[in-house]
Specification:
Layout lengths: L10 H4 L13 H14 L3 H11 L2 H4 L3 H15 L2 E10 L2 E8 L5 E8 L7 E7 L15 H17 L5 E7 L2 E8 L1 E3 L4 E2 L6 E2 L4 H14 L19 H6 L2 H6 L10 H5 L8 H7 L17 H15 L3 H13 L20 E5 L5 E5 L15 E2 L1 H12 L6 H7 L16 E3 L4 E8 L2 E8 L4 E7 L6 H19 L1
Antiparallel strand pairs: 1-2, 2-3, 3-4, 5-6, 5-16, 7-8, 9-12, 10-11, 13-14, 14-15, 15-16
């Protein structure tokens, strides 16, 4: 459930050949990047609207103006201003600026894409973690205790400025190094977050769907190369079902889209509680490209896998996941809870929006997202349960070690270089896992393969987890580099 294309740019776009730009003349995209950073630092709703009208291309201007205002004002609010450091990367028709957040002093990347012809209008804006350069060299940490202290100080700074609400957990070999809860689970009643607060996972549920599919593969009940027609003969059509393979659905290369469409937006959320209910929303989907030809994030693809699970097991999807994933992993506070039923310790999501006066206010997301999550996302869990999930995966309690490795490696054969079977994959760092984002939802699980470290960040502020995730990655990178010396 991705909220806004301004939030992130596809890794495949950003991974295109880059070069250090300090000795080169500024490109049009670099000039646009400087304008974007300056606008963030001096953001007012009026200035943002004027810049969008004059500098954004047609597609970007097609987004609601309030979304642009909230993005720029939100960037300023969360960072309290950005200091330009250097051009981190130059891309074809794009640039990534390395900037320093004034609130915390840490570094981040602002990616700006521009059109290739004058006046070089802005065609995309997103955030990217900083690359390891001389300017972004990590301060060394010499122990896990030092790492925990640095993380506590960092998150506390964000929380004091009301830029983070949620839970943070960092563990090594299953042992918690640091855990903390910040902010409020319910602002109306001043209920604080706690370590057992259940947060919406957003798209992190895709890992659960993918692991249960992998279990069925191990049992010989299906194959990654099986055509979808074997289970759903006519979805999305008879011809398409013969082309789409299970591996395409797992890697977002099937060519399907998202069932969070206009019908969903206009309908009562109470209608959609079962996989079949959700499949009704996806009935009009069709293939946007030949399966395996390219990568395109797809909620519908993961939903369809949920239906495949039901067809193969002859069980309700939610029951099957509870029995075969949550129970063996020891996850006691994880489920796709129905939001109109009482569930203890469930966090309400909040999104900060900005009025014409430039002041921010919070709006809850109760009427925005699904009544009940499903195979593609929207379930709930706790930081401790997500650690249990990660450790169960690593220990072979859910799937074999060979299957876990298969799921968490790139799949270039289907044009998926940074996504395995239901898991995001960073080949450069060895980090695997998944994130989730939506208004009032910001979640992430990082498994640092080969190091024993696992990090969970769950936030009920839209975009709230990102700086904390980046900080943890920086600390772990520093710690493991030190140990390796």
């Amino acid at each position: 459930m991705n909220f806004h294309r301004l939030v992130a740019l596809p890794a495949a776009v950003l991974a295109v050949v880059s070069s250090v730009a300090s000795a080169q003349a500024p490109t049009p995209a670099t000039r646009r990047a400087r304008e974007v950073v300056a606008l963030i630092n001096n953001a007012t709703p009026a200035a943002i609207r004027a810049y969008v009208d004059s500098a954004f291309n047609t597609q970007m201007r097609g987004l609601p103006m309030q979304a642009h205002v909230d993005f720029f004002m939100g960037q300023r609010d969360r960072s309290q201003g950005l200091e330009w450091v250097e051009v981190q990367e130059q891309l074809p028709n794009g640039a990534v600026a390395l900037v320093r957040r004034k609130l915390t002093g840490d570094l981040s990347g602002i990616a700006v894409l521009s059109e290739s012809t004058p006046p070089y209008r802005v065609s995309g804006i997103g955030q990217r973690p900083p690359r390891a350069t001389a300017a972004s060299a990590d301060a060394r940490v010499t122990s896990d205790a030092e790492m925990a202290t640095a993380l506590e100080r960092y998150v506390a700074t964000l929380a004091k400025a009301d830029q983070f609400s949620g839970t943070v957990l960092l563990a090594k070999d299953g042992r918690t190094i640091y855990s903390g809860a910040f902010g409020q689970a319910n602002k109306d009643f001043n209920v604080p977050n706690a370590l057992d607060t259940k947060f919406n996972l957003g798209s992190m549920n895709k890992m659960f769907t993918s692991v249960t599919i992998a279990q069925l593969v191990e049992q010989g009940k299906l194959s990654y190369d099986d055509p979808l027609s074997k289970f759903l003969p006519d979805y999305p059509s008879a011809a398409a079902a013969q082309k789409v393979r299970i591996k395409h659905l797992l890697t977002h290369t099937a060519g399907l889209g998202s069932y969070f469409n206009a019908e969903f937006q206009q309908a009562s959320r109470a209608r959609f509680r079962t996989v079949d209910d959700m499949m009704q929303l996806a009935r009009g989907d069709s293939l946007a490209f030949e399966p395996g030809a390219r990568w395109s994030y797809s909620n519908t693809g993961m939903l369809v896998l949920g239906k495949v699970i039901e067809v193969v097991t002859k069980q309700d999807y939610f029951t099957y996941v509870r029995e075969h994933l949550s129970k063996p992993a020891g996850m006691v506070n994880t489920d796709a809870y129905e939001l109109d039923l009482v569930t203890p310790n469930l966090a309400v999501g909040y999104q900060r929006e900005f009025g014409d006066d430039g002041k921010g206010r919070f709006r809850n997301n109760i009427f925005m997202h699904v009544m009940r999550g499903g195979p593609a996302g929207g379930g709930y869990s706790t930081a401790e349960d997500m650690l249990r999930f990660a450790e169960a995966l690593k220990a072979g309690k859910l799937v074999s070690a060979a299957t876990f490795e298969l799921m968490t490696t790139p799949k270039p054969d289907v044009n998926s270089p940074r996504y395995g079977y239901g898991f995001g994959v960073d080949p450069e760092t060895g980090i695997v896992g998944h994130s989730g984002g939506f208004p009032g939802i910001s979640s992430n699980l990082d498994i640092f393969k080969g190091t024993g470290y696992v990090a969970v960040v769950l936030s009920n502020y839209g975009g709230g987890s990102q700086p904390v995730v980046e900080k943890i990655r920086s600390l772990v990178r520093s710690r493991t580099a030190k140990v390796a010396q």
